[in-house]
Protein backbone atom coordinates (compact mmCIF):
# COMPACT_ATOMS: atom_id res chain seq x y z
CA UNK A 1 0.00 0.00 0.00
CA UNK A 2 1.38 3.39 -0.99
CA UNK A 3 2.02 5.76 1.89
CA UNK A 4 0.07 8.96 1.26
CA UNK A 5 2.02 11.05 3.75
CA UNK A 6 3.15 14.48 2.61
CA UNK A 7 5.82 15.27 5.20
CA UNK A 8 9.12 13.49 4.56
CA UNK A 9 12.12 13.95 6.82
CA UNK A 10 15.28 15.55 5.45
CA UNK A 11 17.14 12.23 5.66
CA UNK A 12 14.43 10.50 3.62
CA UNK A 13 14.46 13.27 1.02
CA UNK A 14 18.25 13.05 0.74
CA UNK A 15 18.07 9.26 0.37
CA UNK A 16 15.49 9.61 -2.40
CA UNK A 17 17.72 12.12 -4.23
CA UNK A 18 20.73 9.80 -3.96
CA UNK A 19 18.65 6.90 -5.30
CA UNK A 20 17.63 9.03 -8.26
CA UNK A 21 21.18 10.19 -8.79
CA UNK A 22 22.43 6.60 -8.98
CA UNK A 23 19.86 5.80 -11.66
CA UNK A 24 20.51 8.94 -13.73
CA UNK A 25 22.68 9.18 -16.85
CA UNK A 26 24.31 12.55 -17.55
CA UNK A 27 21.80 14.28 -15.30
CA UNK A 28 18.77 12.66 -16.94
CA UNK A 29 16.53 9.96 -15.60
CA UNK A 30 15.58 6.86 -17.48
CA UNK A 31 11.99 6.00 -18.13
CA UNK A 32 9.99 4.83 -15.07
CA UNK A 33 12.86 5.74 -12.74
CA UNK A 34 10.66 7.90 -10.52
CA UNK A 35 8.09 5.10 -10.35
CA UNK A 36 10.74 2.58 -9.32
CA UNK A 37 12.13 4.87 -6.59
CA UNK A 38 8.60 5.66 -5.39
CA UNK A 39 7.90 1.95 -4.94
CA UNK A 40 11.28 1.55 -3.24
CA UNK A 41 10.39 4.12 -0.57
CA UNK A 42 6.66 3.29 -0.58
CA UNK A 43 5.55 6.84 -1.39
CA UNK A 44 3.64 8.56 -4.15
CA UNK A 45 5.53 9.28 -7.35
CA UNK A 46 4.76 13.01 -7.22
CA UNK A 47 6.99 13.42 -4.13
CA UNK A 48 9.92 11.80 -5.96
CA UNK A 49 9.38 14.03 -8.97
CA UNK A 50 9.26 17.12 -6.76
CA UNK A 51 12.59 16.22 -5.13
CA UNK A 52 14.24 15.67 -8.51
CA UNK A 53 12.82 18.95 -9.77
CA UNK A 54 14.25 20.80 -6.75
CA UNK A 55 17.67 19.23 -7.38
CA UNK A 56 17.63 20.31 -11.02
CA UNK A 57 16.78 23.87 -10.01
CA UNK A 58 19.75 23.93 -7.63
CA UNK A 59 22.08 22.63 -10.35
CA UNK A 60 20.78 25.19 -12.82
CA UNK A 61 21.47 27.97 -10.32
CA UNK A 62 24.95 26.52 -9.70
CA UNK A 63 24.37 26.17 -5.95
CA UNK A 64 24.74 23.26 -3.59
CA UNK A 65 21.93 20.79 -4.05
CA UNK A 66 19.58 21.06 -1.07
CA UNK A 67 16.46 18.90 -1.14
CA UNK A 68 15.56 19.39 2.53
CA UNK A 69 12.09 20.51 3.45
CA UNK A 70 11.62 24.26 3.10
CA UNK A 71 8.76 24.43 5.54
CA UNK A 72 9.33 26.46 8.67
CA UNK A 73 8.88 25.06 12.15
CA UNK A 74 5.63 26.96 12.62
CA UNK A 75 3.86 25.72 9.51
CA UNK A 76 0.64 24.06 8.62
CA UNK A 77 -2.88 24.80 9.66
CA UNK A 78 -3.14 27.14 12.63
CA UNK A 79 -5.45 26.48 15.54
CA UNK A 80 -8.63 28.51 15.69
CA UNK A 81 -8.58 30.83 18.70
CA UNK A 82 -11.86 30.61 20.61
CA UNK A 83 -12.85 32.84 23.49
CA UNK A 84 -14.20 30.20 25.87
CA UNK A 85 -15.79 32.88 28.08
CA UNK A 86 -18.28 33.60 25.28
CA UNK A 87 -19.93 30.23 25.82
CA UNK A 88 -21.35 31.30 29.21
CA UNK A 89 -23.02 34.35 27.60
CA UNK A 90 -24.93 32.28 25.01
CA UNK A 91 -28.49 31.34 26.07
CA UNK A 92 -28.92 27.74 27.14
CA UNK A 93 -31.56 27.03 24.46
CA UNK A 94 -28.97 27.89 21.79
CA UNK A 95 -26.33 25.45 23.00
CA UNK A 96 -28.19 22.18 23.29
CA UNK A 97 -25.97 20.62 20.58
CA UNK A 98 -22.41 21.14 19.41
CA UNK A 99 -23.71 22.21 16.00
CA UNK A 100 -25.90 24.94 17.52
CA UNK A 101 -23.11 26.13 19.80
CA UNK A 102 -20.65 26.19 16.89
CA UNK A 103 -23.10 28.32 14.89
CA UNK A 104 -23.31 30.86 17.72
CA UNK A 105 -19.53 30.98 18.10
CA UNK A 106 -18.89 31.10 14.36
CA UNK A 107 -16.59 28.04 14.30
CA UNK A 108 -16.77 24.51 12.92
CA UNK A 109 -18.52 21.85 14.94
CA UNK A 110 -15.42 19.64 14.60
CA UNK A 111 -13.43 22.27 16.51
CA UNK A 112 -15.87 22.13 19.41
CA UNK A 113 -15.88 18.33 19.27
CA UNK A 114 -12.10 18.36 19.67
CA UNK A 115 -12.41 20.71 22.66
CA UNK A 116 -15.03 18.37 24.12
CA UNK A 117 -12.64 15.42 23.80
CA UNK A 118 -9.97 17.50 25.56
CA UNK A 119 -12.32 18.16 28.48
CA UNK A 120 -12.59 21.92 27.89
CA UNK A 121 -16.33 21.59 27.23
CA UNK A 122 -18.58 19.30 29.24
CA UNK A 123 -21.94 17.73 28.48
CA UNK A 124 -24.69 18.14 31.05
CA UNK A 125 -27.98 16.25 31.06
CA UNK A 126 -30.61 18.38 32.77
CA UNK A 127 -33.85 16.97 34.15
CA UNK A 128 -36.93 18.74 35.39
CA UNK A 129 -37.24 19.08 39.14
CA UNK A 130 -40.60 19.21 40.96
CA UNK A 131 -41.68 22.69 41.92
CA UNK A 132 -42.80 22.78 45.55
CA UNK A 133 -45.42 25.32 46.55
CA UNK A 134 -45.63 26.69 50.05
CA UNK A 135 -48.33 24.21 51.07
CA UNK A 136 -46.18 21.32 49.71
CA UNK A 137 -43.23 22.47 51.82
CA UNK A 138 -45.49 22.82 54.84
CA UNK A 139 -46.85 19.28 54.38
CA UNK A 140 -43.33 17.83 54.11
CA UNK A 141 -42.20 19.70 57.20
CA UNK A 142 -45.20 18.42 59.16
CA UNK A 143 -44.37 14.86 58.10
CA UNK A 144 -40.79 15.27 59.32
CA UNK A 145 -41.97 16.70 62.63
CA UNK A 146 -44.43 13.82 62.99
CA UNK A 147 -41.50 11.37 62.89
CA UNK A 148 -39.98 12.95 66.03
CA UNK A 149 -40.53 11.67 69.54
CA UNK A 150 -42.08 14.50 71.55
CA UNK A 151 -40.25 13.48 74.73
CA UNK A 152 -36.71 13.00 73.42
CA UNK A 153 -36.93 15.03 70.18
CA UNK A 154 -35.29 12.09 68.40
CA UNK A 155 -36.59 10.17 65.43
CA UNK A 156 -38.92 7.37 66.37
CA UNK A 157 -38.08 3.72 65.71
CA UNK A 158 -38.86 3.11 62.04
CA UNK A 159 -38.28 -0.65 62.00
CA UNK A 160 -42.04 -1.25 61.98
CA UNK A 161 -42.61 1.00 58.95
CA UNK A 162 -42.75 -0.37 55.41
CA UNK A 163 -41.96 1.99 52.52
CA UNK A 164 -43.77 1.15 49.29
CA UNK A 165 -43.42 2.51 45.79
CA UNK A 166 -45.03 1.61 42.48
CA UNK A 167 -43.75 1.95 38.92
CA UNK A 168 -45.73 1.66 35.70
CA UNK A 169 -44.18 0.22 32.53
CA UNK A 170 -45.58 -0.01 29.01
CA UNK A 171 -45.73 -3.59 27.74
CA UNK A 172 -44.42 -2.48 24.33
CA UNK A 173 -43.32 0.58 22.35
CA UNK A 174 -44.87 2.37 19.40
CA UNK A 175 -41.72 1.82 17.34
CA UNK A 176 -39.14 -0.91 17.85
CA UNK A 177 -35.96 -1.70 15.94
CA UNK A 178 -35.05 -5.20 14.80
CA UNK A 179 -32.10 -6.70 12.95
CA UNK A 180 -33.29 -9.29 10.45
CA UNK A 181 -32.17 -11.29 7.45
CA UNK A 182 -32.94 -9.89 3.98
CA UNK A 183 -35.30 -12.75 3.18
CA UNK A 184 -37.30 -12.43 6.40
CA UNK A 185 -40.78 -10.92 6.33
CA UNK A 186 -41.50 -7.77 8.30
CA UNK A 187 -43.20 -8.60 11.62
CA UNK A 188 -46.75 -7.42 12.12
CA UNK A 189 -47.40 -5.77 15.49
CA UNK A 190 -50.97 -4.69 16.18
CA UNK A 191 -52.73 -2.94 19.05
CA UNK A 192 -56.22 -1.53 19.46
CA UNK A 193 -55.06 2.02 20.18
CA UNK A 194 -51.49 3.26 19.94
CA UNK A 195 -52.22 5.89 22.59
CA UNK A 196 -53.52 3.31 25.06
CA UNK A 197 -50.73 0.77 25.33
CA UNK A 198 -51.31 -1.83 28.08
CA UNK A 199 -49.24 -1.28 31.17
CA UNK A 200 -47.93 -3.41 33.97
CA UNK A 201 -47.24 -2.22 37.51
CA UNK A 202 -44.39 -3.25 39.77
CA UNK A 203 -44.85 -2.71 43.47
CA UNK A 204 -41.73 -2.47 45.62
CA UNK A 205 -41.68 -2.61 49.43
CA UNK A 206 -38.63 -1.79 51.58
CA UNK A 207 -38.52 -2.82 55.24
CA UNK A 208 -36.06 -4.28 57.77
CA UNK A 209 -35.71 -8.07 57.74
Keywords, separated by commas or semicolons:
209 residues; alpha+beta; two-stranded antiparallel ribbon; two-stranded antiparallel sheet; 6 helices; 4 strands; 33% helix; elongated
- Roughly how many Å is the radius of gyration? 37 Å
- Low-confidence stretches at least 5 residues in length (pLDDT < 50)? none
Structural class: alpha+beta
Average pLDDT, rounded to a whole number, is 87
Succession of helices and strands: HEEHHHHHEE
Give the strand line-up of the largest sheet: 1-2
Q: How many DSSP E strands?
A: 4
What is the end-to-end distance? 68 Å
The fraction of residues assigned to DSSP E strands is 5-15%
Largest sheet: 2 strands, antiparallel
Shape: elongated
Which range best describes the helical content: under 10%, 10-25%, 25-40%, 40-55%, 55-70% or over 70%?
Answer: 25-40%
Number of helices: 6
Amino acid sequence: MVDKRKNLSDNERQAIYEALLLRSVNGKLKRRTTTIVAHLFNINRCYVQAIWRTAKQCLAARVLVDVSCKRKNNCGRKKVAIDMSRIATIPLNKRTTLRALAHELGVNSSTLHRLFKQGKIRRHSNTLKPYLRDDNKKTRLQYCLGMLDAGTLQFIDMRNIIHTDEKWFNTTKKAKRFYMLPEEEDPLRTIHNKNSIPKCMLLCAVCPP
